[in-house]
Amino acid sequence: MSEINWVVAGVGEIARKRVIPAILAEKHSTLYGLVTRDPAKADEFPGTGAWPTVEDAVQDPDVDAVYISLPVALHADAAIAALRAGKHVLCEKPMAIDNHHAERMAQEARQSGRLLGVAYYRRLYPKLIRTKQLIAEGVIGQPLLVEANCHGWLESEERAWLRDPALAGGGPLYDTASHRIDAMHFLFGKSESACGRRSNVVHNLAVEDAATAVLSFPGGVHGIVDVRWNSRVRRDQFRILGVDGEINLDPLNGPELRVNTGSSGPGTGGPSAGGQVEMLPAHENVHYPLVQNFVGAVVANSVASLACPAEQGHWVDWAIEKIVRSDPWRP
Known about the structure:
CATH superfamily of the largest domain: Dihydrodipicolinate Reductase, domain 2
Strand order of the largest sheet: 8-9-10-7-11-12-13-14
CATH architecture of the largest domain: 2-Layer Sandwich
Helix content: 25-40%
Number of strands: 14
Order of helices and strands: EHEEHEHEHEHEHHEEEEEEEHH
Structural class: alpha/beta
Number of domains: 2
CATH topology of the largest domain: Dihydrodipicolinate Reductase, domain 2
Number of helices: 9
């Protein structure tokens, strides 16, 4: 297998804690350089180059791929510059600041013949892959409803740009709901409609501190996503209800997968307690399988091998735009 020379654009918390360690650990990858306004950050990684912009970095013919870990508003221009220079791109989520820019990115990938993946790493969670298999096998019968909640307090100050709509697009709708909406797309296909409500009743922010979305999927499946930066009680819930049972992934980022089928009796309104439990932990660095998957797809030159190709990552941007347009709230 060929070696892939990576440039990481943006050296924030996610890049330092997950992306760069994943590239360093992936045996066919080399951390070739960084895009940063502070060249001193490259000193931590001997032998790596440093450039002030993606446009500068992709002029180097030895660069093979660019990981974009910049604020959301910068994704489209950076990705398009890299694709036009003949580089493959793996981009953080959500794909772009809005649906229009996401469409431009996907179009550029098609025209360039290079791969553009979106970093929805939960698609590679063993428990989510197993859930898709169980649904296909009919274990819970016809699926009816998928629910996700992700509640917590404000992000760290290091990611303060998340509170600036010009850089982030929005609050938890963009930051955390995007992952849950994509997980639903992974399980059920592109949403057919989306609407929702946002609010800011606890924090004085320029973005929402809470959002609730309602989506519909092929086959009549309904989806509900509730995300919050205003809850001191942390929640990470995800479950699928079907005619004959349910699959519970609480917490979504944990290893447990529970399958309950049948009724616990007349009038009880739910499946029986207990049921099947599987332990399917994610990789200790959730970005490692993502980088590994992307490298394999590049070597095979196969869009179909990507965990989340641009054409599917774009579905989330479409849904978010529908949710925002349906909502009268404005900061």
